[in-house]
DNA sequence: ACAAATATTCTAGAACC
DNA sequence: GGTTCTAGAATATTTGT
């Protein structure tokens, strides 16, 4: 019996990492399955005709009246996030109908086959600690807020207030700097264009610009190249 | 010749597609700002007291009654997705209150500063600095030694960390923007100087510049004035 | 108690329109 | 640029030993 289940599962999840069959399904799946099966709430959430998907007919009522009784929230979006975490997919369009191969009417035992996603990082619980936080020095030196590490709730609170203020100030200054940068760019683009006109309209004699020596023209070209580089970043 | 033409286009295109103030903000921002300002719907969505954030008091009613009149849907989650796309952040918890530095009561013109975020724009909000398990444990050890409101200390600590990260990112971007601004300025100053030399050395005959008509000289003077105004701020 | 697993929240990616 | 569906990431809570 157990062997059969494991075999079947191995076939289905051939490309993924192996998994161990759970003794009891996650409570989210149990609660949701019970909810869908429950006849009194079929006007809010129910199976489709074949019992292969379930449909949320009234998301507002589900969120307001049912979710809080099962979970610690009343947000439809949190419910959907959980469904996606367990691999459910919304089917078709226009209504909140979800499907999972192992989520079917009357087949409660199948829930054990459903795996929560993103559990793949449970392999090395402590080896991550060693090196990953070494280079926070770079951005530290930019901020005046890094001078001391607060050791109490009160100082943390004060620092938070200050950080928020600094943050707002930085946003404003950044916006203003970007604005000036762009004004500069526009101004220069216009100016460059007008100079180009002057240069091109200047009379040429014997293949030489009358009043613009070679070095000036080279300057102009370098300027154009620099402008091009800068404008692509600003 | 072709080079200069391309150059001009590069400038103009860059200017219009990046940080230059748009003529009209995206309709989403205009509609949302109008919606928040509208007094009759203040029981559903309104400014906070200071006019620095807005609060959705009744998400269900907003989705059902208001969203369809402005957009082509009636999903609260789609509305939230748009807010995030434009850089709004949910503030605090427990209610749908959103903030953006450039989204304020009565300041409709500020909307032009708001940039829609795209895939390649993942630098500012994202940070390389990862929370490590060690740091987490430090916080927990700290909080468990606190006699009063340990969870508050922990969340304050998390927020503190996030603020510092954002602060550092902002500083980096600000420094980079200022640097570009200065490079632009230097480039332009040099260019301006060389042009001035050319202009002043040009022969004058009967009180008239030989090859620089009056309008060009006026342009040049206006340009210089604009430049000096900008350089004093940058 | 501790670390892992799960749950909840908020934000972003990506496909499609 | 907008809408939809799914996933990432941070935080909070529960569970297993």
TrEMBL record, chains A, B:
Gene3D superfamilies: Winged helix-like DNA-binding domain superfamily/Winged helix DNA-binding domain. PROSITE patterns: HSF_DOMAIN (PS00434). The keyword Nucleus applies. Keywords: DNA-binding, Nucleus, Phosphoprotein, Stress response, Transcription, Transcription regulation. It is found in: Nucleus. Residues 67-91 form the HSF-type DNA-binding domain. It comes from the Eukaryota. InterPro entries: HSF_DNA-bd, WH-like_DNA-bd_sf, WH_DNA-bd_sf. GO terms for molecular function: DNA-binding transcription factor activity; RNA polymerase II cis-regulatory region sequence-specific DNA binding. One of its GO terms (cellular component) is nucleus. One of its GO terms (biological process) is regulation of transcription by RNA polymerase II. Its main location: nucleus. Homotrimer. PANTHER family: HEAT SHOCK TRANSCRIPTION FACTOR, HEAT STRESS TRANSCRIPTION FACTOR B-3. Belongs to the HSF family. This is Heat stress transcription factor B-3-like protein. It comes from Cinnamomum micranthum f. kanehirae.
């Amino acid at each position: 019996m157990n062997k059969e289940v494991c075999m079947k599962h191995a076939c289905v999840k051939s490309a993924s990492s192996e998994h161990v069959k759970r003794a009891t399904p996650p409570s989210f799946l149990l609660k949701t399955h019970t909810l869908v099966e429950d006849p009194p709430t079929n006007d809010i959430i129910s199976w489709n005709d074949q019992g292969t998907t379930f449909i949320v007919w009234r998301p507002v009522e589900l969120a307001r009246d049912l979710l809080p009784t099962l979970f610690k929230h009343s947000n439809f979006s949190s419910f959907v996030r959980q469904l996606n975490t367990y691999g459910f997919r919304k089917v078709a369009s226009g209504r909140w109908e979800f499907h999972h191969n192992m989520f079917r009417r009357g087949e409660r035992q199948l829930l054990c086959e459903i795996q929560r996603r993103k559990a793949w990082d449970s392999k090395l619980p402590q080896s991550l600690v060693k090196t990953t936080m070494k280079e926070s020095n770079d951005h530290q030196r930019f901020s005046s807020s890094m001078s001391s590490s607060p050791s109490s709730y009160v100082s943390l609170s004060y620092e938070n207030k200050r950080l928020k203020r600094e943050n707002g100030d930085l946003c404003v200054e950044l916006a203003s700097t970007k604005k000036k940068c762009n004004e500069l760019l526009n101004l220069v683009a216009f100016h460059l264009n007008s100079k180009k006109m002057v240069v091109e309209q200047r009379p040429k004699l014997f293949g030489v610009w009358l009043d613009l020596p070679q070095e000036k023209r080279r300057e102009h070209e370098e300027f154009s190249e620099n402008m091009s580089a800068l404008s692509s970043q600003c």
